[in-house]
Amino acid sequence: MKKNTGYIMALTVMLLCSFTVVHAQTGFFIPNKGKVFFSGDTAAIFSNVINQGQLGIGKGAVLNFKGNQWENDPLALITDESSNGNGITGQGGIIRFLASDTSFFNRQQVLIGGYNAAARTGPSFANLYIANPWGVKLLSASTKIRRRLHFEDGHVLAEDNILVVGDGNPGSITGYDENHFIVTGNSATGGFLLREKISQADGLVSFPIGTTAGMYTPAALQLNNGAPDDFYARVFDSVKTNVNSGQNMVAASVNKTWQVGQLLHPGLGEVSITLQHLLADEGSQFQAKRQNAYVSQYINGSWDTGYPQLTPLAGNLTTGSPISNSGINTRNFVNTLTANAYFTKLTGLGDTSLYKTRLWFSAYRTDYRHVWVFWNTNPEVNQKYFIVQRRLSNETVFSKRDSLASQAINGASFRNINYGITDLNNYSGISFYRLLMISYNGDTTYSNIVAVGGHPDGGGIVLWPNPSAGKFYIGISSLGGVKTVVIYNAIGQLMLTEEVNNRGFIEMFLRTPGAYMVSFIGHDGHLVETKKLIIGGH
Q1: Which CATH number fits domain 359-452: 3.30.750.24, 6.10.140.1580, 2.60.40.10, 2.60.40.1120?
Q2: 461-535, what's its fold?
Q3: Rounded to the nearest 5°, which phi and psi values hold at 85?
Q4: Is 17 a residue whose pLDDT tops 70?
Q5: What is the rounded CA–CA span in Å between residue 182 and residue 143?
Q6: pTM for this model (two decimals)
Q7: Other CB atoms closer than 10 Å to residue 349's CB: what's the count?
Q8: 252: closest CA among 214, 217, 292, 218?
Q9: Cα 294 to Cα 272: distance, rounded to the nearest angstrom
Q10: Which tens digit of pLDDT belongs to each residue from 207-223?
């Protein structure tokens, strides 16, 4: 304990000495192997900073930097209160970049972070606050912030450098809005914002970026499944047919291209990407069909068609109020987010071409008065609602029984969604059910037809008419799990074999009158059910 106390005292003396010379020299300099530790309260540095040694900022300490340039040597350290002031695993204090108190010196500040993003080595800030209305420009090296980047005023201009936030996690970015964000540049070569180890538990993670001051066009992503990963994002002006070359697509797009990368496990997992654009950037063709806007990925040599295709919602990628002059769209990507992927926004016709809804539909009688009608979707794309329709065997047309709205958020889901309704039905004959699916743009699609008998036998299999003159029908609920239908005559001879192939309605024919046994074989080879069939004379 005495050793630790002496160490803190020595650090305090060093700190006091540093403040003594700050006003007498042109810079605040920490030499190689030198150590300075700010243990608490608020302090200020008015000159440039060169850190070649170890600068500690303890929990509760605030260091206001009002000089022009801060430079970290690649071998320097910025520590916190952990390990007696020598570690980087604690909460740490705040380093705040502020404009000078003298208006003559009000200008953009420069930060040479000293971090190597490729090697993952070099100094990193625990908490960095931006409070300079002229902004802070990154120069010559990447910069890493372990815990929190907070905007009070101004921007961070990444130039052609990488700003890393997080340390084994995505860290925290706060205070961002349309006036305070990371400027990645307005060309195809510029800076990036990288956030470490985003996981499913982190939910939606924002990348508050824009091309220039006043052009806030952020992105956000959510890892839906897959291992935690490092993701980066940047945005630049223009959309071209080949990303950086080819025909200019400004009229058909929002004149922004977002570059997003998944670094540790590229091309694996499901990621939802949200992009926010300025309404003023919408081209004439985009504006004319903006109700069918979607996020498009450049893949296989062209911009693809995506879903859902919806009118952009008000921009909400901000820590402030929703931004009315901006619009957001979201799309899921499954195993296509590479280490170097490009995205923009285009408009379509509201039809489905990339993904189509996959439907599993069935029905069965629960008792003499009710039928349970149920279905499952995965994926579900662009569906607005579902209508359950029924036709009794003594009727000629289908009629509506009930309707349910889609449960897919924004009209698209790539997970199992289950639906179901109970239909009041005491009809003793055969009832036929189907599903009418209505898309967001009004297109209609019918499901398969399922036949339900008048008695609750629980097997989900019906056969009619019986007796039959030769032609008969078999209705198989998906609940029955039937793979094959086999028919034997009265002396046990095999007469007919029919593969179901996921059909719910099968037409069959037997020519010879007599008694037959119709057996239904499941996918595991076991007998599901046997029904007796009588074929009369023709």
Answers
A1: 2.60.40.10
A2: Immunoglobulin-like (2.60.40)
A3: 90, 5
A4: no
A5: 12
A6: 0.65
A7: 12
A8: 292
A9: 13
A10: 999 999 999 999 999 99
